[in-house]
Amino acid sequence: MPDEQLLVREWLQADAVNSNYYEHFKTIWNESKTLAANITVDEKAAWQKFKSRIQTATVKQEPKTMRLSGVKKLQVAAVVLLMAVGSWLLYNALHQPAIVAMVNKQTFSNTAVDTLSDGSIITLNKNTVLSYPTAFKGKTRTVKLKGEAFFAVAHDTTKPFIVEVDGVSIKVVGTAFNVKNYDSSILVIVESGIVQVSNSKQSVLLHKGEQVLIQNSTSTFDQSTVKDSLYNYYRTKEIICNNTPLPAVIATINEVYNTHIVLGSDALKQFPLTTTFKNEDLETVISIIQQTFDLNVTHQGDSTILSFK
Length: 309
Prior knowledge:
By secondary structure, the chain is α+β, with helices and mostly antiparallel strands.
């Protein structure tokens, strides 16, 4: 509305009285914004009452013809403009949606369990950040993840649960799944139910016992069957090996104990291990692997090397 704004500026510059008049209305409007935050208005009743008064006034008053000077016209235009803008701002102040506070749950060297407002239970692994609202509004339940977490999602067909992680969207209704995103990839493992995993290029449906690995550099989806339950170690406090290839076991041990164990021979990569480690210290874990495969254990700097004798 450039023309109206020009008229108002000319009117304000025409006389100091006009400027005082404008400031008076501006003060009224500023006060009304403060009042609007604390007043509950029955908008429909107020509108009907206003229309009734206008109609009554129209019937009683005799039509009059009035000529306005140029200055008077500017005054009227300014007042109408102020009232229109003020009404619009007041309406928006009364109807703007409530602001929902966000929570950032973060772990460092510890794990943590959190329950969301919908009843979903989230277990966070070490070095993880989960962002979520204190209450879910709208048509979805959306959270953001960096790190690793296990989601036991409360069932609600009317409001899907969505995990956003590094450009990938994981959408469910009610299910249990694990999401891992630490370095250059995202791994989603489904324990129960159905999970939809998608990015800007493609989408897949995962069922119980399936997983998908997404490389950040290529965004390609590598879908396969879950071969072990090692991903659950931070939730169950157990490393369960069931004919599990030794490299996968070693990788999990390195994560759990923040150590660096290395297999000194490619032949060891073909060896499977069946056992359960439950709250053992690192020395005991290494000793069990050493005795199982009759290996040598040597230390080189920060690395522990397992090799044949």
